[in-house]
Amino acid sequence: MGLLVAGTLAFGAPAYAQNSPAGTVMQAQTGNLIVMPQNSYYWDFDRVVTTLPTDSTPSFFYDVRAMAYVTGAQGATTCRIGLSADTAPSHQPLLFSPVVDVPANTTIAIPLEYVGQAFSGQKLTLSLQFVSGPAPLNIEQWTSVTAEVVPTE
């Protein structure tokens, strides 16, 4: 069983995947510093994509993890991250983190994880979302999304 994997990353960096008979692992990482304006919403960030095979098990579990590294760019601000499993135009989040305080000139890490179920033949698109607070926010270059997809049988 092989899984077809394709991926894109915000701002042109490649996504990576490793397939095996036991499933697949995908990873996308931000390739450069991104300054996010105050009170903004970014979606479809560090996207990983795969189409689940139709010639194996009928269902799969996926575990998607994000690690966001953010810095208060021009003063203290807040940040909220989310994970989504869909594409435009809805970008409905699977899960949102609590609002996190981000001090000025200090980098903090915000982890988030979600486990879900997918089905044979389904295109699975997983990505990160950001909501900035009252001051600009730096999204640091090592922010990433990692997803594992494994058969349920």
Features:
single chain, 153 residues, Jelly Rolls, seven-stranded antiparallel beta sheet, six-stranded antiparallel beta sheet, elongated, disordered N terminus
Task: Map the helices and strands.
Layout: E1 4-7, E2 16-20, E3 23-29, E4 34-36, E5 41-51, E6 59-72, E7 77-84, E8 93-96, E9 100-102, E10 107-119, E11 123-132, E12 137-139, E13 144-151
Antiparallel strand pairs: 1-5, 2-3, 3-13, 4-12, 5-11, 6-10, 6-12, 6-13, 7-8, 7-9, 7-11
Average pLDDT, all residues:
85
Number of domains: 1
Number of helices: 0
What is the third-level CATH name, the topology? Jelly Rolls
- Give me the secondary-structure category: mainly beta
- Based on Cα principal axes, name the global outline: elongated
What CATH architecture label applies?
Sandwich
CATH class: Mainly Beta
- How much of the sequence lies in strands comes to over 45%
Order of helices and strands: EEEEEEEEEEEEE
Question: What does this entry show, briefly?
Answer:
The chain is an all-beta fold and 153 residues long. It has strands spanning 4-7, 16-20, 23-29, 34-36, 41-51, 59-72, 77-84, 93-96, 100-102, 107-119, 123-132, 137-139, 144-151.
